Structures are given as C-alpha cells and as structure tokens.
Amino acid sequence: MTSNVGPTVRRRRLGQELRRLRQEKGMTAEEVAEELMVSQSKISRLENGRRSISQRDVRDLCRTYKVEDKALVDSLMQMAKESRQQGWWNAFGDVPYSVYIGFETDAASLRVYEPQVMPGLLQTPEYAEAVISGALPEVAPDQIAQRVQVRLRRQERITDPLTPLRLWAVVDEAAMRRVVGNHKIMSDQLEYLVRMSHEPHVTVQALPFGMGSHPGMSGQFTILEFSDESDTSVVYLEGVTSDLYLEKLTDVQSYSMMYEHLRAQALNVDQSRQFITEVAQDHARRHGEG
Questions:
Q1: Is 279 strand, coil or helix?
Q2: Tens-place pLDDT, residues 211-235
Q3: What predicted TM-score, i.e. pTM, was given to this entire model?
Q4: Residues in contact with 94: Cβ distance below 8 Å, sequence separation at least 6, in sequence order
Q5: Which domains does the chain have, with CATH numbers?
Q6: Whose CB has fewer CB within 10 Å in the chain, the N or C terminal residue?
Q7: How far apart are CA 240 and CA 100, in angstroms?
Q8: Are 11 and 49 in contact (CB under 8 A)?
C-alpha cells in the first residue's frame, strides 16, 4: 500500500481504504460516527483524504469494522503515520491551497485550461508577483512574496530531470491580452511561454477570440492524473474562499471530454507559438511607445 508519494496522496489512499472497509462492513458513515461518538463530517473528511488521519483514528475504525487481518491493520497504521509527514510547502507557512499543491506534487500529468491568467507553472517571477498582488490587493507585501516563492518552487516539477511533470495547457487569448503589471512584463511572459512550449513534456495551445464559444467558457479547471492506477484522476476548480475537487469517474470523464473539445478548437502547437509571439510583439511595441 505504501510507495514514494507525498502526504496528500497517502491520505487519499488511506481514506479510500477506510471507505472500502466501512462499505464491506455494511455500515453508513452516520452509523460509524454514532458508534465512535464523533461527527459524521469527520468520517467523511477522513474518507475523502481532506483531513489528517491519526493512528488512533485508524485503530478505532479498524476495531469498529472488526478487521482481523493484523498485517492490514499494521499497514494502515503505517500509512496514517506517513500521511502526517509535512510536505515541502509547509516550510512556507500557511499556504491556502496546500491540498492542491500536494496533488500537483505527486501528479504525473496536468491538463490545464486558463481563461484569464497564465498557467501558474509557466509564469515568470515578475508576472507571478503582479498577478498575485492584483488578485489580492489587501494582502501584505511579505505574504505576496511568500506566495510567489511557493509558485516558483512548484515550477521545479517542470524542470525535474528524473520525473518531469507532463503539462498540457490551453490558454485563452484573454490571458495573453490582459496587461498584468505592464506591457514589458507581458512581453517577457509570453516569450517565456513560447520557450517553455519547446520542452518535450510541455504543450501549449492558444485559444483565440475568433474561435467563438467553447466548452471552457464556464471557467478555469485542471485535470490531475497520477502514475499509479489506484490513484484516480482529480478535477480541480479554484475558488475565492474554497476550492473544489471532483473525483467521481463521471465528473472526471465530463471534464476530460470538455478538454478534448478545447484542444480541438485551439490552434495547433506551431500556430499557437506564432500567435503568442505576435501578441508578445504587440506588448513590446506598446511598451516602447510608453
């Protein structure tokens, strides 16, 4: 049950195993909560991997489910211990989207649609600072700097020489035209986007305004996929005060189909590089005029 993955995915795997044991016992989450004298929401959070799972939790649940396989109990207890280890992002303090970072850190591939901003994994430091400070005008400068550092640390997955993240990004023209910071920052950002698109594990497609309506008009989304078949794909929807993680097979399939339509409507790779370069040159010209 254990492998070289981070605490977020470990919690998820452990939660899935605990759910399986509950279902095999024929108990509802409400019944388990009543027997252990805890809230039903706690049982749900333990099973969906959004909450740290203590060894005591595992022990109590295994007793409730009358698990007699000592090797299985020991394995679950070890998973609980390892799932409470800290990820690299904990060194940066309270990171609001730490659950997502945990998934991203262990993912094998990402499919991203961005309608408003550049993909976080492909942002320059200057663009990242400008977009974060613009989106969070009431956040202190030191917190802005912290978030920028976290974003840059996340980008190391792209350049990892052993297991680089496979990234496919469809970027709307609006994200390229919107002046984040200034025209110089935008020109540099778009040139960087083109350079990164030449990496063998990075694919970037532009979705121009002229393509008209498309399935992604409801907003940004990311599909995370993992190398281990036991780790089902996750759809991530970013929110202002909370994020949404969709793991049901039907939800993942719906978003995967949406993404296929987006890729089909977007410019191909070579056309996208040409298009992005032209927008970058437009920003550079406007910077020169300023």
A1: helix
A2: 999 999 999 999 999 988 778 899 9
A3: 0.82
A4: none
A5: 7-85 (1.10.260.40), 93-289 (3.30.870)
A6: C
A7: 14
A8: yes
